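Milestone 3.1: sequence recovery, worked example.
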């Protein structure tokens, strides 16, 4: 199936993590300082596509951190009533956005058993596609809504859908065309 977020379970030092984030900030500062006036219109679309791929990948960075907080942290020790409350305050986001991120991380982030065994994400193929930047937030929402009873290892596909694994059909599609087909 390819790699999943489980690969993130290595033990990097805090200094390595902070350094990588500093490099990411510096790279974004450099891009923000660039003028795109020299690019043709087709090249602008290409650059927007590259930017979209980067934006689509960023939630995959947060999933392991959110899942670790959910498994290990005390919301009260972090100043909140719940983990959603902690995320609301810490990230300056709404309660509904925090709840969405928690649920998405549960489905798309790495998991561990109580004995420490590393498991792939519940929606492993979707997680891999998100890590690559092939699926955006709308694609992920449609998949998560369409598979409310999906469990690891299950393949659920309505009989009227193509045999191709439908969770990957969004790779070349807009979210609108990716939604569950309507039946007559």
């Amino acid at each position: 199936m390819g790699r999943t977020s489980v690969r993130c379970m290595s033990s990097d030092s805090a200094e390595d993590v902070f350094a990588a984030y500093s490099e990411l900030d510096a790279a974004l500062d450099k891009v923000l300082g660039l003028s795109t006036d020299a690019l043709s219109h087709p090249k602008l679309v290409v650059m927007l596509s590259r930017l979209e791929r980067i934006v689509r990948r960023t939630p995959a960075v947060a999933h392991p951190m959110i899942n670790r907080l959910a498994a290990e942290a005390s919301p009260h020790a972090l100043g909140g009533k719940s983990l959603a409350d902690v995320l609301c305050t810490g990230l300056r986001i709404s309660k509904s956005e925090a709840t969405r991120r928690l649920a998405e991380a549960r489905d798309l982030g790495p998991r561990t058993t109580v004995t420490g065994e590393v498991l792939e994400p519940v929606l492993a193929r979707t997680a891999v596609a998100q890590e690559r930047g092939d699926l955006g937030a709308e694609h992920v929402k449609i998949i998560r809504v369409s598979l409310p009873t999906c469990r690891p290892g299950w393949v659920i596909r309505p009989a009227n859908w193509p045999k191709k694994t439908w969770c990957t059909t969004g790779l070349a599609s807009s979210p609108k065309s990716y939604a569950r087909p309507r039946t007559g």
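Confidence is low (pLDDT under 50) at residues 1-8, 150-156, 160-169. The CA atoms of residues 111 and 117 lie 8 Å apart.
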